[in-house]
Amino acid sequence: MRIANVQFWKTQNRKGRPKPYQVRWAVDGKAFYASYRSSAHAELFRINLVAAANRGEVFDTETGLPVSMQPETEALTWYQLACAYAQMKWSGAAANTRKNTASALARITTELLVEPKRGVVAPDSQVVRRALTHWAFRLTARSEAPEVDVAAALEWVAQHSRPVADLKDLDVGRHVLRSISFRLDGTPASPSHSQRIRAVFHNALEYAVEKGDLPENPLSRIGGRAPRLTRQVDPRQGGFKV
Questions:
Q1: What is the pLDDT of residues 1-50, one digit of tens each?
Q2: Would you tell me how many other CB atoms lie within 10 Å of the CB of residue 160?
Q3: Which of these, 114, 233, 220, 123, lies nearest to 180 by C-alpha position?
Q4: Which element (helix H / strand E) includes 31?
Q5: Buried b (16+ CB within 10 A) or exposed e, 136-150
Q6: pTM for the whole thing?
Q7: Which of 6, 109, 208, 213 is 20 to 30 A from 38 (CA-CA)?
Q8: Torsion of CA 139, 143, 149, 151, to 10 degrees
Q9: Which letter, b or e, does each residue of 32-43 get, where b requires 16 or more Cβ atoms within 10 Å of its Cβ?
């Protein structure tokens, strides 16, 4: 929760402490403090807090900090979201549902990878799909250490997975939906096959909305069902694919 009801107190000098100068303030009645070795650093921190409040910035009731002073956090990636979604769905799902979910998440994940830097060699695509389907999204396999090639593939995916926030750009979601309209060999997929993957994609993004990682489900703004396609198209066009 974020709110702008902030109260400040004078900086305290707690003599004998390693960091004696303590800045104290409260956000919506919840007290916060920060300690410093020097009075100058403490006063600078307090001045920045007061200035943010005077500008009308909202303060976070969890951290006590205004928006401008929030620590930077790494952006959630699609791969991280997919792993969390698979874990959330696992316990209540039948064996066949688990298998289909893992397969769908693996396909979507390979469509949401960024271009590797020049000179960086991607792992074998079959190893990547096996690593995702049979280890990353299969919770029973996580009790054992993955094989060396699987571990390397998963590390590579983790480093090259697109941020979930990229899906706010509807063209990113459209790219995934176009790609899953084809099988890996480039032949058109059946509508039921595409819809099964799209359903997992949609539900995973709904999970992101529930967790506060997305403001809305971007697929809800992309109309249409998986089309019936009659011509063969290279699914590698329009984006990187392992």
A1: 444 589 999 999 999 999 999 999 999 889 999 999 999 999 999 999 99
A2: 19
A3: 233
A4: strand 30-36
A5: bbbbeeeeeebeeeb
A6: 0.64
A7: 6
A8: 80
A9: bebbbeeeeebe
